[in-house]
Amino acid sequence: MKNVYLDHAATSPVHPEVIEEMIPYLTEHFGNPSSIHQFGRRARKVLDDARTTIASSINAARNEIIFTSGGTESDNLAILGTASALMEKGKHVITTRVEHHAVLHTFHELEKRGFKVTYLSVDKNGRISLDELKASLREETILVSIMYCNNETGTTQDIKEIGSLLKEKNIIFHTDAVQAYGLIPIDVAELNVDLLSASGHKINSPKGTGFLYVKESVPFLPQGFGGEQERKRRAGTENVAGIAALNKAAALAMKERDERFAQYMNYRDTMKKIWDEESIQYLENGSNEYFLPHILNVSFPGVKTEVLLVNLDIAGIAASSGSACTAGSHEPSHVLAAMFGEDERTKSSVRFSFGLGNELEDIEYAARETAKIVKRLAK
C-alpha cells in the first residue's frame, strides 16, 4: 500500500538541508547567545544571520524580527503586546470569524480583560467585506487582526487594501501569515502591515520555531518576563538550533517559492480533474479566485467527514477535517460554519494540503482512492 501525506497545512516534514544545518548547533556549538565568550558569540551569530535572512524576506529591518516558538506564540504576542500597550488610547479591537484559534482565543481573552471585540463575518468564499470593516471602525479602535491565508480553505484576504485603509485611520494592523509565508512574495512596507506572524514548521523547519515582525514604531509591551532577550520583547534563551533551521528553511522557501506555487497548483488541478473523470460529486470550499494552491478543501455530499478520513487513512492517505489544533472535535469547522451556516457541506468536508515530498503520482493515487471511497460510502 502506498502512503501519501496530504496534511502539510498541519505540519510539514523537515527538509534534509535544514536538518543538516541545525545539527552542529545541537552538538558542538551549544553556547548561550547571551554569553560574551566565544561559545556565546558563535551562537549569537546564528541569530544575527537568521534575523537578516528573515527580515530581508519580508522587506523589514533586522531589529523588527522577534524569534518565537511558532505561530501561536507569535499571534498571542502580537495581539496582547499591542493591545496592552495601547489600551489607554482605546479598548476596541477587530478580527474575523474565520481566524485560527491562536487569534480567536486571544481575542476572547481580551474580552475577559474588558476589551470590546468586533468579529467580522465572511461570505461563502470566506472573504470579509471591506465595507463591513470600514463600518466597524471607531474612534477607540486600536488593533485589527486579519489572517493572510486561511489555514482550512486556503482563501486569501486583500491584505494590501486593508492595510491601506487602516494606515489612513492610524490603526495597528496584524496579519497571521503562517500559511502564506514562503509561498508568495510578502513586503510589509507595501502591504502596510504593522505586525506579522509566521511559523517554521509550515516551511519545512522543525516544530517550535517561528517569528513575529513588529514595526519599529508600533507600541508594544512584552508578555513574558525573566530575561532581556530579543531586545527585551520576548524573554527566554533563544532556540539556537531551531533558529538556524528556520534560517535555512526560509532561504530555501524564498529560492523555491515560484516553483512550489506552480507545483501545488498542478496538484490541485490534477485532483479535481480526476474526480471529474470519476464522476463523483464534490463542492469546493473557499474562493476560486483568491486562494493559495497548497490547500484544497472540498465537501463530498452524503459522506461524513470522520468516516471518510478513517477510510482514507486505511488507504494510506493522510488528510484532515481542518485545523490540527481542533483535531478530535466532532463539531463542524468554525471556518465553514462562518461561511455556510448549518449547511450539510460543513459535515462532509476534507482538507488536502500539499508540500515537500509529494509527487504527481502521489496526488493521482490519492485522488483515485478518494473517488473509490466516496463512491462506496455514498451508496
Automatic annotation (TrEMBL):
Gene3D superfamilies referenced in this protein's UniProt entry, alphabetically: 1.10.260.50, Aspartate Aminotransferase, domain 1, Type I PLP-dependent aspartate aminotransferase-like (Major domain)
UniProt entry tagged with the keyword Transferase: yes
Record-linked InterPro entries: Aminotrans_V_dom, Aminotrans_V_PyrdxlP_BS, Cysteine_dSase, PyrdxlP-dep_Trfase, PyrdxlP-dep_Trfase_major, PyrdxlP-dep_Trfase_small
Coiled-coil region: none
Co-factor requirement: pyridoxal 5'-phosphate
UniProt keyword terms in alphabetical order: Iron, Iron-sulfur, Metal-binding, Pyridoxal phosphate, Transferase
Residues of the Aminotransferase class V domain: 4-365
Enzyme superclass (EC): transferase
PANTHER family per UniProt: CYSTEINE DESULFURASE (PTHR11601:SF34), CYSTEINE DESULFURYLASE FAMILY MEMBER (PTHR11601)
Name of the protein this chain belongs to: cysteine desulfurase
